[in-house]
């Protein structure tokens, strides 16, 4: 990656009921937090991804430990140095929840900002890295080849769903949502590129990297919003405004690493 720090938008996905057992005792407002470079795609969120074998933590955020975030301990430390915790450089974990496996979080219902879906679910993704962002990834299968291919894997493979306790209802109704028009790629860019390049599974890393580069660059330069307050505008003109709006409404924060 580049030399300087990368700035992400950290999207706050509010935990809904019923909660997984491991989060039952938390009384403060509780969020899964997902780092994204594409805040303008949040209109197309259909689910969230968690790696079953990565260790996650629950930690306090805010001057008075006002909220609880779910992410990796590594990301919590970064947040502590970005003035997001009560004490600079210090992370306070929820008692007993300094480290637990992502598998415990699968199936959690969440409210994803700007998504037309009332609730989205935490589903397994095996290509999530533990050393980038929070290791929580919000899923936009219309515009992210990674997200689309992981969703297709879950749809195709009942044993994969069963292994992680994911019900058919959490996966089978999900379809990519048209949110951006990208010249040459249509209004479901990831679907187009995954089909054209014949990408069959989340293990095809080389092809996926190429697919990502293709749509990312073209989308940023020439892509247009189809939905929301900025419908009809170019992505490059409104990306920042969408980030600002999400931050102003308390649904996102800035995060760097
Ligand atoms: B992006 P970069 Cl629509 N492991 O958000 C794997 N992937 C991760 C991650 C992790 N620990 N943390 C974040 N990401 C994903 C939206 C999106 C993203 C779209 C299209 C492309 C895209 C919706 N998912 O990323 O290495 C997040 O997915 C293409 C690279 O820092 C985040 O933005 O460039 C992006 O990777 C950050 O990756």
TrEMBL record:
Belongs to the class-I aminoacyl-tRNA synthetase family. It comes from the Eukaryota. Signal peptide: none annotated. This is leucine--tRNA ligase.
